[in-house]
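Lab notes, practical 5.
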Amino acid sequence: MLLTKLGTFLWARGLGLDRAIVMHERALEAFNELNKGDDFEIALAMYNLGADLRASHRVEEARRLHTNALEMLQRLYPGDHAEVARALNALAIDMSVLNEVKTAYELHERALEMRKRLYESDHPDIATSMNDLANDALRLGELKTAQDFHVKALAMRKRLYSGDHPDIGISLHNVARVNVKRRQYLRAMKLYKLALGMFRRLYDGDHPYIAITLFDLGRVYQKIGLRSKKRILFDQGLKMEQRLYPGDSEYIVDRLITVGRSYLPGRKRRARQRYEEALRMAQNLYPGDHLQIVLSLACAGGTYSRRRQRRKLYEQALAMSQRLYPNGSQVTASLVFLISATYFPWQRQALKLCEQCLAIERRLYQSDHAEIVQSLAYLAVIFLYRGHFLKAIKILHESFLMMGRILKSKKAPSL
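Output from the prediction step:
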C-alpha cells in the first residue's frame, strides 16, 4: 500500500513519471505475491500503473492493465460499484486515446448509467462521466449530443459547487468548444471569457488552463474578424506557456508556429521571428531530420517576399522531407507545389514541379481529393501562360468534375 501511495504522490507532484511507474510496478508485484487471487489492492495497483503508462504514451499497455483491473473488479463487486465505474471510465479514456472513439463512448455511457444508479442526486462523478461522454460525442461529430451533455455537466457542477471551481471553469470551456464547432461564435466568446475570468481568480499567476483558454478565445476572435485581439491573446498564451514549460519542447515549437501564423498575411517580419525561434528549438531537440524542422523551415520560407529566398528554405525543407518519407507524403507534395509557385508560370521548372506534385498526390490518395484539385487548377494556369489553351481547358474540366464529386460525397454535419 505504501508503494502505491508513493507512486501516486510522485506523479501528482510532478516529481518524475518514470519513478512513479517503477513504484506502481513494484506495488503490483508485491500484491501479486501476497494475494494469489482477485484482490482490490491488485486491481488498484493495475489501475494506477495504467494511468502512469497512458501519461507516458504507452497507451496499449495501459489498456491491457485497465481491462484486467475492470474484469477483476467486476468479479469482486458484482453489480453496481463506484470502483467498477471508475475502471470503466479509465478504460474508456484509453480507447479514446487509441482513436477507438465508438468503444470509448459505449464505455463512458456504461459508467454514466452506473453512477446514476449509485448516486440518487448530483455527484461529481456523474458530472465527470457526462463531460467525458460529451467529449467522445464531439469527436464522433454528434454536436447536439455533445452540447446537451456538456450543458448538463455544467448545470450539475454549478449546483455542486458554490462560487468559483475548476470543474465549473472546465465545463464553461467545453460548452464554448462545442459552440465553436456549431459556428455559434458569439456564445463561445462569452463562455470562454467566463472560463478565463474564473481560472484567473482560481489560480494566481500562470496556469495551463489560463494559457489554453487564451489561445481558444483568440481563435474565436479570428473567426469573427478581430485579428489584432487574437494576436494579443496568442502572445499572452505563448509567454505564459514558455514560463510554465521552460526549455525546449515539441509543444512549444507547435505553439511558436501557431503564433507565427497569427501575424500573417500582414506582419511577415514578426511571423518570421516566431518561425525562426521554432526552427532553432526544433534543431536543438532533434539533431537529425524531423518533421517539426521541415514545418519550421517551410513556414519561415513563406514569410520572404523574394522568390529566391522562399525557394532556398523550401528546398531545404523538401530535401529533409524526402529523407523522412522516401515513398512520398503530403508534406513532400505540398513543398514541391510551393517551390513550383516560386517560379513564374511560363518557366519550365514551374511545369515540371507541378506535374511532380500531382504525381505524388495521385499516388498518395488514389481517388478524388481537394489537394489534387488545387494542383490541377495550378497546372491549368501554367498551361494557359504557356499558350496551351486546349490542355488548360481539359485540366480545368477535370478539376471541376473532381470538386463536384468531392462536394457531392460530403455529408451534412450533425446538429
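Observations recorded by the TA: The two ends are 48 Å apart (CA to CA). Residues 1-118 form a domain with the Serine Threonine Protein Phosphatase 5, Tetratricopeptide repeat fold (CATH 1.25.40.10).
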